[in-house]
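Hello,

Our lab assistant flagged a job as stuck in the queue for most of the afternoon. It eventually completed. Since we weren't sure the result was trustworthy after the delay, we are filing this so someone can double-check. Below is the sequence as submitted and the structure that was eventually returned. Let us know if re-running is recommended.
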Amino acid sequence: MGGPTFDAVLKLPLRMSRKEAISQPLRDLDQIRQFMSGQGPIAICDMPWLPIYLAILFLFHAYLGLLAVAGAVFLIVLTVASELVLRDPMQRLAQLSSSRAEFIEAGRRNAEALQAMGMSGAYSTRWHATNGDYVEEQRRTSDATSSFSTVSKIFRLALQSAVLALGAWLAIYQLASPGAMIAASILTSRALSPIEQAIGQWRNFVNARQARRRLEDVLKTFADKREPMPLPKPQNTMDVSSLMIAAPGANAAIVRDVSFRLERGQGLGIIGPSGSGKSTLARGLVGIWPAIRGTIRLDGAELSQWDPEALGPSIGYLPQGVELFDGTIAENISRFAANADPMSIIEAAMQAAVHELALSMPEGYYTRIGAGAQFCRPASGNA
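-- returned structure --
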């Protein structure tokens, strides 16, 4: 599930206006993996032994079997009660955890602005409030989980002692053998141990179940309905008709009724004040933001009919916020293509006037880089 989940994380910002849940699928996947590698699945696998142990206890004596069944019923009721009590708190805790993580990430991304404009103190105050809510909810949830786990453990020990006492009484009146008394105590402990473990792991189970549901919803959203038909590389026309574009998760159009047609060799420049929709139009033309009305056709085929991986090499796009990826200069220019042609990389670098900059680096085109102002031009070479 790691591959589909990562693909969904990359596509979430293109579908959602809220940023809180963008990295949530990966955390959900980690939550499921953590549960599956813990004690919870072991307790579930041990559950089928419960009726077998109870049946053996009934063979020893009906009273022993009935006492064990009563204990099992009590622990099952306790498990159901823990589900009812912990369900809503666990959901709130997951939401607070997601908000808390995104709050930290937002501060990390805007650290320079926070420092330069003297906002660190105010931001820290908000962080303490958010973190305080999370810690308080976590404390309440942990207290409830610990209470259920403690009650189940104390009850199982008390029940085991009660089985010993009942076995001794049956042995005194020669209704059961002394060996059956000891065996009944051991079997009762074995029979109820999986239920006790399940109660102790119930918090992790609830977390994993909620994570699975959220992950399934995300994966269904981005499930590939049908692989697009391979189309020839677009070379001739771009036809835009009555295009309206809205931000992800919004219904109000930012760009309205845009229509134009470009033939091969033609270009179109768009100018306007800040906030007039130039970047929105660019996002819509390359399929980043959805078109709520109208069509975009390349060589007669609508944009939705193209495979993004196949169409990508034919499109150059440079966002407003330039971010390079962790890799070499050559990898960033070649878009991390596995078998990129070195001469094509150098040609693109020359067109972006970055060839000399690359050669001046310690390892040339193989110098590893990250985001930075001096490397804005390699991004234009990528485009």
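-- support follow-up --
The delay was a queue issue, not a problem with the job. The result is valid. The first helix runs from residue 2 to 15. Residues 242 and 257 are 4 Å apart (CA to CA).
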